[in-house]
Amino acid sequence: MEDLELMKFQSTPLEGLFLIEPEPRADDRGFFARVFCVEEFARHGLCTSWLQANIAQSKSKGITRGMHYQHSPHAENKLVRCTKGSVFDAVIDMRPDSNTFKQWFGAELSESNQTMLYVPEGFAHGYQVLEDETQLHYMVSALYAPQSEAGVRWDDPAVGIDWPIKEAVQLSDKDEQWSLLV
After folding, report:
1. What are the extents of the domains in the chain?
2. What homologous superfamily does CATH list for 52-176?
3. What is the pLDDT of residues 27-56, one digit of tens each?
4. Residues annotated as catalytic (active site), given as ranges
5. How many helices (H) and strands (E) does the chain have?
6. Strands 52-58 and 64-70, sheet pairing
């Protein structure tokens, strides 16, 4: 059988972080697209073992969630995809030994572009909702462990994420309490 690459893996300026675009196969009925393949992910050195899948629904444009991550031994890889609406998805490299420590990257994920973001262990992750009634689906490689949870303020000036909406419409109590990086 022919070995098809049915996803495009695009590296980013932050090592280990990838944008992944499905390669839809379309006809007059619609399309088919692969969003995960153990062989394709393994060829790119990415996680192939997912332990949990999550859905996040956001009701209103401007809702901002993040920036979250988990410390070792419960650090997690994430594969994030927007299935309805759109978000500006952002990550911060929290790996102290990385050349890009405290640097950020962001991309629009949407129902229409079908782009996914592969977030490796050691990155804080968050997003800002760009349309009402938006939904994300994401896979994680570790189970949620509250004792390992950590976060960074979404608007930390030391990081300087260029959010499309400058004032978050709605934050959780927890997200309002994350500290600034020193």
Report:
1. 52-176
2. Jelly Rolls (2.60.120.10)
3. 999 888 889 999 999 999 999 999 999 999
4. 68, 138
5. 2, 13
6. unpaired
